[in-house]
Amino acid sequence: MSAPTYEALKLPSFVETVLVTGAGGFVGQKLVLLLLKLYPNLRIIATDIIEPPNHGITDTKRLRNVKADLGKPDELKGVFDGEKVGGVFALHGIMSGGSEANFPLGYAVNVDSHRALLEATHKHAEANFPQGHPRPIYVFASSLAVYGAVTPQSVVDPKTKPVVPESSYGVQKHCIEMIVYDYGRKGYLDTRTVRLVTVTVRPGAPSSAASSYISGMIREPLQGQESLCPIADSMDDPALDYYLTWVGRTKTVIRNILWAAVVEEKQLKEVSQERIVNLPGIQITPRQIIETLIKYGGKDKLNLIKFKKDPAVIRICDTWAGAFDNSDALKLGFEVDDSKTGYEGAVQDFIEEELGGKVA
Amino acid sequence: MSAPTYEALKLPSFVETVLVTGAGGFVGQKLVLLLLKLYPNLRIIATDIIEPPNHGITDTKRLRNVKADLGKPDELKGVFDGEKVGGVFALHGIMSGGSEANFPLGYAVNVDSHRALLEATHKHAEANFPQGHPRPIYVFASSLAVYGAVTPQSVVDPKTKPVVPESSYGVQKHCIEMIVYDYGRKGYLDTRTVRLVTVTVRPGAPSSAASSYISGMIREPLQGQESLCPIADSMDDPALDYYLTWVGRTKTVIRNILWAAVVEEKQLKEVSQERIVNLPGIQITPRQIIETLIKYGGKDKLNLIKFKKDPAVIRICDTWAGAFDNSDALKLGFEVDDSKTGYEGAVQDFIEEELGGKVA
């Protein structure tokens, strides 16, 4: 249950200010908290479509919170005005369920606003850093959802597996991956893309994402609430073993997003010409989620799992790969959870950090 | 030297009007000519940034020529107003050299105007075809330039070769491939993408494309003009055999672009979930180009080839694959040139169609 390490996470000295978009989201909040913890002298601009939380920081030199719609040129400009941004974490976006339900909104946010942010960062870099100076570091959070045409039994090797998204979300993420790469290739920005693994355990309410049950089956019962298992009929259903699921412990994923800004550009390009890394994950089964629930919450929590197959969810889960090759990421210094104990670590984190150590 | 066949090229009966963009370009002009020849009752809207040629057709019911900048909403709207478009051939674009030289222009044309065209076609379809009616057929011309991280000795199999473009052009084409696929996946349009092979012999002046010499070494000397061979020092240079080059005879490529509109959607999706086909090609060497020049133009034409290595061209040619797996395309009824005689056929076509049968 070894935790991620932070010693090597040194940002280049010219990175005195970083911008985090989607800073009000779960991943964005956790990243801002880690930046605050690791870098006492770093200025952080945190932006989102609603005002992000200030995490108790009232010194606006340290943390500047900006409510901004990055799709609106004047609001985007306002984020950069008067700043000297040396690093960007582009995390904002419409999630998979939302992008599938609202086609124009998905493209407006996941494509158009990201292109606008890229170009704004490029122009900002030209205006603020002299020629020959290292370019600002730009980390784009993509998703393993760009891969489709796979099954839960697949092991994806990025070197031989073409990207075939099965959702508008995957298409949009892949387009921006490519354009982010192009800004890097042209030398406009020092770009890096990380494809996020399913983060677990996500706090908060169930979402419309098909993957929602992966966190939900732990999260709700540990709080004494019912949760749906949409891929199986009962504890005897072999689907509980079939749907191999690729996940990452929240704090490991957050550490790795930050590591993406630290890893050397040269080393990254040697491993991935397009500077894209599939973040490492570990494989769990739905049965393992339930067993871990019982271990940490007690046998009675099983009664809170309501088995009811949902064909729509199953159809989507059928297109998810159960494993990815981690070797490129590990070679580059990204970290991976222990394959045996990592998932329990994620559940313990959730109990400690989100439930204040108390299980219902 | 068998020519492509046209008997099977039946468009669905609801396709009474087709739109061809980039209709003033080489490929666009040839496609319009083929449409005029094969379909006497088809209405063709031909558009380009400059007014496309009318090919001697003065009946504007048969051929409507529109000068339009598809990046301008009102001009794009003007193309569709009052029409009932059942098929689109989206061929317009900034070529590879131009996209690399002018980053914003490449994105404006190769990405933004194509997205606008897709959405305009989608809206047009909703307004003009009732629910349940087959969707308009949308053929997007992409390019094998989306592939990078290969060498002239590579044989690319699309099933195991991820797309890693090495140019803004390749990035832009790949983004639109993905978005075109998304419109198909959502059922908005019946979309098909063909990745064009290098078309030979291209008429006209040498272009800024690195591939320009492939047509140039035949085209200029046959007209008594000098031409540069930028990848070799002399006829003894092994580079003339090393730079395996993947090409298609013009009329075969044009036939295949039209075939993309005819092939059954169901069959296409079975072969390629994302409805993308690498158009078939044949392999030639630079030496073979020169030998064919001598065969059709006489030994003295060799004096018109000026050998002068250009590191910039070589750097790009080093990233081109010398061959692609044709099998998916052939399974779907796309045609391929004869591997032995196809290139000579392309040269004969050029002499007959572009030089009026006369060699200098």
Automatic annotation (TrEMBL), chains A, B:
Task: Show the InterPro entries listed in the entry.
Answer: Epimerase_deHydtase (IPR001509), NAD(P)-bd_dom_sf (IPR036291)
Say if the entry is tagged with keyword NADP: yes
**Domain (NAD-dependent epimerase/dehydratase): residue spans on this chain:** 18-225
- Could you list this entry's UniProt keywords, alphabetically sorted: Carbohydrate metabolism, NADP
NADP recorded as keyword:
yes
Q: Which residues form the signal peptide?
A: none
Q: Which Pfam families match?
A: Epimerase (PF01370)
Q: What is this protein called?
A: NAD-dependent epimerase/dehydratase
